[in-house]
Amino acid sequence: MMNSNSKKVILIMNLGSPDSTSVKDVRRYLNEFLMDERVIDIPKIPRALLVKGIIVPFRAPSSAKAYRSIWTENGSPLIHLTYQLQAALQQSTDYPIEVCMRYGTPSPEFAFKNIQEKYPSVEEVILFPLYPHYAMSSYETAVEYGKKIFEKGNYPFKFSVINTFYTNEAYIHALSQSIAPHLEEDYDLLLFSYHGIPERHVKKTDPTKKHCLNVADCCNVDSVAHEYCYRHQVFMTSSLVAAELQLPKDKFTTSFQSRLGRDEWLKPYTAARLKELPKEGVKKIVVVCPAFVSDCLETIEEMGEEGREFFMEAGGESFTLIPCLNTAPLWIKAMNLLIENHLQNQDSNVPVS
Fold this sequence. Notes:
- By secondary structure, this protein is an alpha/beta fold.
- The chain has two domains: 8-164 and 329-348, 3-Layer(aba) Sandwich (Rossmann fold); 169-321, Rossmann fold (3-Layer(aba) Sandwich).
- It is built from eleven helices and eight strands.
- It has helices at residues 23-34, 44-70, 77-90, 108-118, 136-153, 169-179, 199-204, 230-244, 270-276, 297-313, 329-344, and strands at 8-14, 97-101, 124-129, 158-161, 189-195, 252-257, 284-288, 318-321.
- The strands form two sheets. It has a four-stranded parallel sheet, sandwiched between helices.
- Helix 5 links the parallel strand 3 (124-129) and strand 4.
- Helix 9 packs parallel to helix 10.
- The chain is globular and about 60 Å long.
């Protein structure tokens, strides 16, 4: 359905992945990822010493092993699923759909040049970051890096960005319906496990500098800070999904995975809760990871393998991991609605020209 003469092109951006499972490629990927000032937010020189001198040399071999455990004949699951998403979305819209990654390949620079060559009539590129929630280390870095590459390239078209969509009705419905079939069997608890971030990131993105993690019950107290507060936003997603599924409060909970380093991150930690829950009488658990729209290392290996092991060894009886939205038809429908909403509200999404 693609229109090669379209004046608007949609550029979906996912996280990215190493080019292969070799330690060399994983090391290169980790260096790019962890040297991002919005991921490890300390000055460049100490960040380089930490990342290149300590974290990556020790982490690359184990990460390469983890990637090998999920790699398929099509390569990285996240990359393959993103291209499948591109194809599925393209079948439902006339707007050309292109792909880039925040880290690794294809880069935004490659994507912009490719768009310029493939669509000579293009007047605007609309970036669609595949992150439902706002965080420095996900949505913000995707947007700011996209803007940086766009401005550096002096391209003839305009550039705009689709907002976060953590409360969007179509997204919540797609997520809810992906969960519903897994709750038909007997279960004790639905665990929403979101990617964690350091507590300091929540405080840094608070424009008031005095609300997030400072005010009692801050996520439930109205504030302009919520527009940028990852913690508030993930709790909102969990609550809205639970409401659509009509879940009582004792049948769902929220936690945070993927902690890196010794700093305080958002709590409770998923790994700790998976070890504790069986002792609290939770023997049958269903897990969903809504921070990710495409299955990846953090869902397939960290939750599907490591998380399962934590739970079962602690006395759990069944562990069900729900796949990400990936190419679910309701997710494709939600993406189309988000694109149309963006186009109808261009005044609130001022293009960078």
